[in-house]
Amino acid sequence: MEISLFDVLGPVMIGPSSSHTAGAAKLARAARQIVGEPFFHVDFALHGSFAETYKGHGTDRALLAGVLGLWEDDERLRDSFELAREAGLGFSFLPEDLGDVHENTVRMTFYLGEQGELATAPTQVIQGSSLGGGRILVTRIGGFDTGITLEAPTIVVMQKDLPGVISSVTAAVAACGVNIGTMRVSRTARGKLACCVLETDTPVGDSLIAEIRVLPHIIHAQAVSMGGEEDHHVHQH
Amino acid sequence: MYTSIESLVALTQERGHPLWQVVLEEEMALSGAGRDQVLEGLAQRYRVMEASAHRALEEALPTAGNLITGLSKTHHAYASNPNSLCGPFLNRVMAMALSGSEVNASMGKICAAPTAGSCGILPAVLVGLRERDNLTLEQVLEGLLVAGGIGAVITRNATVAGAEGGCQAECGVAAAMAGAAAVHLQGGTTLQVVSAVSLALMNAMGLVCDPVAGLVQVPCAQRNASQAVNALLSADLALGGMVSIIPADQVIDSMYQVGKLLPGQLRETAQGGIAATAQGKRIYNQLFHPEALE
After folding, report:
1. What is the least distance, in Å, from the CA of B84 to any CA of chain A?
2. Is the pLDDT assigned to residue A236 strictly greater than 90?
């Protein structure tokens, strides 16, 4: 049987919906990790079924909990509005037609910095979909199209689109003894910026990410891991 | 490795092991985890299930629109009535199934088994039997393994998504899993476990997914209660000697085919069935489009 008992008898989650609540929280937690730096405000643009039913399913509370770093089975999820206010995190939710995208899609705009003005703060935009059963897909990071499921540990690298940059990244990963499962590069225009997403067989350490960040022509590098059961217990205590 | 009910049963015969043990062995082979690790993982899931089955019995929980708030508490109070038609045991199982649904709708912690919408059924049956017969945790975990093995086959060969297969794929499958577990916990044979799966799925065949206002509340909570009873009556029919004349794998396939035949309106879109009644639409507007009401 190629299906684990723990997929059938699970996930353990905060209700009511694996797609509209658990998946939304997971997607936002992924976005927080991809951003990887402090932010003081997040705008959520809700599309399709998310826009239609977000209040009834607590999608708004789940998304906010996710950007605060709460897990999908954390009972504090339903108190995320209060938790955000305590943490000084601003937020807004607005329905928006995001075009030809999955029914359960959200675009999250992070305003970067410890604090600042919305009009002048630098932003990072992450868009993704909740596919059902708690599965997610990060479809856009900044201006780049991606297709990240985060079912494996993932490294997201922003770089200048120049010869040799990708091989310097993969060489650094290989030197750490980490195997790359899949790799996808997308770019805005030839010779400008590229986004490189690597899925690895095992989680990568902070030291590798630090190493990648100082390679030539690298703008940003971030490790994203949604964690397995083991990490989870560490996180809860 | 098993890929169907038939091949799962064949493995029990080849190895001379009970069904729960084969499911455990196969999980260990799939995940590379040890026996204790798998059992501890299942025990964690069971603890979440037990808490969700109990939580709303004594306390009405707030839910969006409060469509099912207090249903479990009210039914729990009735369950002790010795003159009830179904008796205290079945009524307590119903109250616990309602509790799981109420916890889920109130943004509490549940274990999707197989889904969040059907999360009340398996816990209600397992906890109900554990309380009635003073079962040990070990025994309950055997039941959970039986249920999980059946659920894995159905997930593989059909679907457990309401959007794909309707309520039969969520609550019907949960009833099949719970019925299988109940037969095992009553000391039934592997053949009886398999019969209960067929019978429970037949009894739920064609059940549509029609949630009022798109919320996982009405008629989901009621279906959790009724499908928990379906699990137990199917288990009893099997234990009483009824053999399904249609093999379980064929029943599973027919459930899948019926799901595909269902129009989109009856697959979790809140466009048909109970959701499309005048009152169902009114509740939807009250909650999400109050400006549309006079």
Report:
1. 31
2. no
- Residues in B touching A18 (Cβ below 8 Å): 112, 115-116
Among residues A91, A122, A150, which one ends one of the domains? A150
Alpha helices in chain A (DSSP H): 5-8, 23-35, 48-57, 59-67, 80-86, 165-175, 206-213, 229-236
Q: Which amino acid is at A71?
A: W
3-class DSSP state of B242: coil
Thinking of the domain B5-244+264-292, which architecture would CATH place it in? Orthogonal Bundle (1.10)
Contacts of B112 in chain A (CB under 8 A): 10-13, 18
Other beta carbons within 10 angstroms of residue B84's beta carbon come to 12
Residues of chain B contacting A11 with CB distance shorter than 8 Å: 111-112
Contact call for residues B206 and B273 (beta carbons, < 8 A): no
- Give the three-class secondary structure for B294: coil
pLDDT tens string B92-116: 999 999 999 999 999 999 999 999 9
On whether both A47 and A125 belong to a single domain, the answer is yes
Choose among B110, B60, B272: nearest CA to A17. B110
The single-letter code of the amino acid at B243 is V
Stretch B199-218: mean pLDDT, rounded?
Answer: 96
Considering its fold, how many domains does chain A have in total?
2
Question: Is there a contact between A11 and B111 if contact means CB atoms under 8 Å apart?
Answer: yes
- Is the predicted pLDDT of residue A232 greater than 60, yes or no? no
Residue pair B199/B169 in contact (Cβ under 8 Å)? The answer is: no
Spatial CA neighbour of B28 closest among B149, B113, B198 = B149
Dist. CA B171–CA B179, nearest whole Å: 12
* A-B C-beta contacts closer than 8 Å: 137
Residue B26 amino acid letter: E
Q: What's the CA gap between A170 and A47, in Å, rounded? A: 36
Task: Flag if A1 and B110 touch (Cβ within 8 Å).
Answer: no
Domain-embedded: residue A161: yes
Whether A5 and B152 lie within 8 Å, measured CB to CB: yes
For Cα atoms B135, B141, B146, give the angle at the middle one, nearest 5 degrees.
Answer: 115
Question: What sign results for the dihedral spanned by CA atoms B139, B141, B146, B147?
Answer: positive
Q: Whole domain around residue A166: which residue ranges?
A: 154-224
Boundary residue ending a domain (A131, A150, A169): A150
